[in-house]
Write a structure and sequence with these properties.
156 residues, Ferritin, elongated, DPS_DNA-bd_CS, Starvation-inducible DNA-binding protein, Ferritin-like_SF, DNA-binding, DNA binding
Length: 156
């Protein structure tokens, strides 16, 4: 590969790519949980949750691609295995199939965790004027904050 000269030095790009790898791992773990819950939700809210979870995992599937492509744009390899995601993710794994309300609570916490991970990475982008990554992270935070709000509203 030829050298990258986008106005951000290699060490800064590396640190940002490592942060984005954590965002990617959190997002992929949340995607997998959401898809699992879509398949396995039961109860009085089945239809509403089944359809909502499908909307969420579809959006997350697109997001993980965008995040991975940003890592590649910065000149680094995106993680892509369960082993790497497990090591990098801050989103807690769930054993078994929880009941519907617990699914909502778990996904709320997952979306909030992605926001926190994004916030930790966006600080790095400010220092080196990496607006491309900052824009991606800002959009992700906004979406995850709104999704967490909507999930919390189901439990009130």
């Amino acid at each position: 590969m030829t050298s990258i000269d986008i106005g951000i030095n290699e060490e800064s790009r590396k640190q940002i790519a490592e942060g984005l790898s954590r965002v990617l791992a959190d997002s992929y773990t949340l995607y997998l949980q959401t898809h699992n819950f879509h398949w396995n939700v039961t109860g009085p809210q089945f239809r509403e949750l089944h359809l909502m979870f499908e909307e969420h995992y579809t959006e997350l599937a697109e997001a993980v691609d965008d995040i991975a492509e940003r890592i590649r744009t910065l000149g680094f390899t995106a993680p892509g295995t369960y082993k790497e995601f497990a090591r990098l993710s801050s989103v807690e794994e769930v054993d078994g199939v929880p009941e519907a309300n617990e699914m909502v609570d778990i996904l709320t916490k997952g979306h909030e965790q992605v926001v926190r991970t994004c916030r930790s990475v966006i600080k790095m982008t400010d220092e080196v004027f990496d607006e491309g990554t900052a824009d991606l992270l800002t959009a992700r935070m906004s979406l995850h904050e709104k999704t967490a709000w909507m999930l919390r509203a189901l439990r009130q």
